[in-house]
C-alpha cells in the first residue's frame, strides 16, 4: 500500500481534531480484514514520500478490528547523502489510540519514541519503553510520523503494521515511585537534585535502575525523570525506588520550537508537544495545565546548537531557566549572559542547572541544583525552586553559602534584604570544595569583587555596598583552565541565584 505523494486533498483543517486553525495532515487509512478462525496475525505495509516543504506531523490511520491483543509497528526511511551544511533525513514516530488525536488528549496518547527506535509493540500487559500498555480496543488508531528534518531529495518512508489476534493479556498495573525518601529527610535543609535526565524510555542509554545507581553514587537527594514527550517511565519508577533517593516525575516537552521540561508532575501526567512558538495560545494552555497540577516549566538549554532545541517561547511563562546543561560550554555561557540580561532588565526567572544525562558516559549531577526546601517532598522542592532559593554546582563536593546583611537583618539566596538607600550592606560568600578557582560577587554592573580559592578549596569573600548602587547581588565560582569537566576556559563551577537589595 502506498501513501503516494501528499496532496492538498490530504491536508485537513482540524475542526475539532487538534486546534482551530492547526493543520493536520492525514495519510490514507490502513484497513485490516476481520480475522478468520485461524488468523493469528495480519500485516500491512505503507510507503510514501515526504517532500521538503511539509507539516510537522502526519497521522496514519489504522483501522483495528475486534480481537486484536497486540500492535507491532516497524518503520524505516532513506538517508541520502546531502551536501555539507544541508540537513539530512530524520523522522520521529509515536502512536495514538482510538480515543482520538485531539491536542492534549491524554487518553488517546499511547507512546512516543522519536527517532530513537525503529519499532515498538503495545499490548494490554506491556509495551516498548516510551509506550503505554493498555487494552487494544477496536477502532481507528493513528501512527504519528514527525519528519524532523528532510533532505532536498525528500524522505521516502516505509511503515509495517502487524496486528496479533487473541485474548487480551493481564492488565498492566502502574507502579509509580514513592512520594518520599525517608532516609534523606532532614526537614528544612539544602537538597541536591538533577531535574533533567533520560533513560531507555526515550533516547537515553541507561536503564532506570542504572540511572538510580548513578544518582545515588553522585550523592543526590532527588532526581526528576524527564523523558521526551512521554510519561511511560513515570508508571514504572516504583520498581527501582530506594529509601535514600526521591524520584520525581517530569517530561521534556520536545517541540519544534524548543524543549521545556515540565517537572514535579503527578505520576502518569502527559503534556502535549504538537505546536510551535507561533502557536502561543497552545503553549500557554499547557503551561497552565502544568501549573494546575503543581509542576514547574523549565526553559531548557536555550542556546543549544541543534534544530528545534533552542528555546523560542516566551520566557515570562517559564518558571525556571536552565542556564547550565551538562559540561560547561559556550552555549551555557550564552545562556548565563542572556539570563543575566533578563535580570538586569527587571525580569527574574530563577536559574537551574541539570546534567541532561542520556548515556553512561554522561555524568549525572554535572551540574545539579541545590535547593533550600522545607522538606524533601515534591511540593516543598517545587516551592524552593520557583522562589529561586537555590544555587548550581558541578558536583556534590562543592557547596556555597551566600548572604547579605544590614542593620541586624539577613537575606539569603532568592530573598530580598530591605534597607534604606544610605545603609551599608555586607555581602558574604563562602565556597567549599572548589580548589584552584575564583569566586566572584556580581551585581547589575557586573563583577564587583573576586578572590582566588586556594588548593584547600575553601574561601570567604566579603564586599560592602549600598542600595543606592546595587539592586541585587549573585555569586559565581569559575575555573580559569576549564578543568576536568569542560574544555571551555573560565568554566563555571558554581553559581547562585540573586539576593535582592533595597525596597522594591
Fold and architecture overview:
This protein is mainly β and 504 residues long. It is 10% helix and 39% strand. It folds into 3 domains: 2-165, Sandwich (Jelly Rolls); 174-396, TIM Barrel (Alpha-Beta Barrel); 397-504, Immunoglobulin-like. The radius of gyration is 25 Å and the shape is elongated. It starts with a strand and ends with a strand.
Q: Quote the CATH topology of the largest domain.
A: TIM Barrel
Q: Describe the sheet with the most strands.
A: 15 strands, mixed
| Secondary structure tally, helices | 4
Approximate shape: elongated
- Number of E-type strands: 31
- Output mean pLDDT: 94
Distance between the termini: 67 Å
Total number of distinct structural domains: 3
Amino acid at each position: 500500500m502506498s501513501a503516494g505523494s501528499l496532496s492538498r486533498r490530504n491536508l485537513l483543517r482540524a475542526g475539532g481534531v487538534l486546534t482551530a486553525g492547526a493543520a493536520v495532515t492525514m495519510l490514507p487509512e490502513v484497513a485490516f480484514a476481520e480475522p478468520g478462525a485461524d488468523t493469528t496475525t495480519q500485516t500491512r505495509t505503507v510507503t510514501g514520500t515526504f517532500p521538503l516543504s511539509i507539516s510537522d506531523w502526519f497521522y496514519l490511520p489504522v483501522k483495528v478490528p475486534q480481537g486484536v491483543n497486540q500492535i507491532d509497528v516497524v518503520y524505516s526511511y532513506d538517508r541520502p547523502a546531502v551536501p555539507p551544511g544541508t540537513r539530512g533525513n530524520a523522522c520521529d514516530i509515536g502512536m495514538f489510540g482510538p480515543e482520538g488525536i485531539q491536542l492534549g488528549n491524554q487518553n488517546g496518547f499511547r507512546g512516543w519514541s522519536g527517532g530513537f527506535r525503529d519499532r515498538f509493540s503495545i499490548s494490554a500487559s506491556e509495551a516498548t519503553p516510551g509506550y503505554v500498555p493498555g487494552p487494544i480496543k477496536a477502532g481507528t488508531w493513528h501512527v504519528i510520523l514527525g519528519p524532523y528534518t528532510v533532505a532536498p531529495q525528500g524522505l521516502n518512508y516505509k511503515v509495517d503494521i502487524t496486528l496479533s489476534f487473541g485474548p487480551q493479556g493481564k492488565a498492566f498495573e502502574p507502579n509509580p515511585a514513592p512520594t518520599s525518601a525517608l532516609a534523606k529527610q532532614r526537614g528544612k535543609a539544602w537538597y541536591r537534585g538533577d531535574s533533567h535526565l533520560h533513560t531507555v524510555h526515550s533516547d537515553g542509554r541507561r536503564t532506570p535502575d542504572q540511572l538510580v545507581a548513578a544518582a545515588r553514587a553522585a550523592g543526590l537527594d532527588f532526581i526528576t525523570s524527564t523523558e521526551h514527550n512521554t510519561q511511560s517511565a513515570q508508571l514504572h519508577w516504583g520498581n527501582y525506588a530506594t529509601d535514600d533517593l526521591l524520584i520525581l516525575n517530569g517530561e521534556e516537552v520536545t517541540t519544534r520550537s524548543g524543549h521545556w521540561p515540565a517537572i514535579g508532575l503527578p505520576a502518569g501526567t502527559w503534556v502535549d508537544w504538537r505546536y510551535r512558538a507561533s502557536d502561543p495560545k497552545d503553549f500557554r494552555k499547557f503551561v497552565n495545565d502544568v501549573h494546575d497540577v503543581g509542576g514547574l516549566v523549565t526553559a531548557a538549554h536555550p542556546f543549544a546548537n541543534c534544530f528545534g532545541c533552542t528555546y523560542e517561547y516566551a520566557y515570562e511563562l517559564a518558571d525556571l531557566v536552565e542556564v547550565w546543561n551538562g559540561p560547561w560550554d559556550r552555549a551555557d555561557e550564552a545562556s548565563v549572559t542572556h539570563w543575566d540580561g533578563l535580570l538586569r532588565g527587571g525580569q527574574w526567572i530563577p536559574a537551574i542547572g541539570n546534567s541532561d544525562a542520556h548515556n553512561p558516559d554522561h555524568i549525572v549531577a554535572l551540574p545539579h541544583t541545590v535547593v533550600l526546601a522545607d522538606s524533601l517532598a515534591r511540593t516543598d522542592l517545587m516551592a524552593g525552586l520557583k522562589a529561586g532559593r537555590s544555587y548550581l554546582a558541578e558536583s556534590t563536593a562543592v557547596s556555597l553559602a551566600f548572604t547579605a546583611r544590614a542593620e541586624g537583618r539577613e537575606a539569603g539566596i532568592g530573598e530580598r534584604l530591605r534597607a534604606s538607600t544610605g545603609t551599608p550592606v555586607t555581602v558574604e560568600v563562602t565556597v567549599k570544595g572548589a580548589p584552584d578557582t575564583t569566586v566572584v560577587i556580581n551585581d547589575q554592573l557586573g563583577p564587583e569583587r573576586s578572590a582566588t580559592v586556594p588548593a584547600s578549596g575553601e574561601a570567604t569573600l566579603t564586599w560592602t555596598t549600598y542600595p543606592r548602587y546595587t539592586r541585587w547581588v549573585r555569586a559565581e565560582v569559575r575555573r580559569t583552565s576549564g578543568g576536568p569537566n569542560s574544555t571551555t576556559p573560565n568554566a563555571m563551577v558554581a553559581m547562585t541565584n540573586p539576593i535582592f537589595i533595597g525596597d522594591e
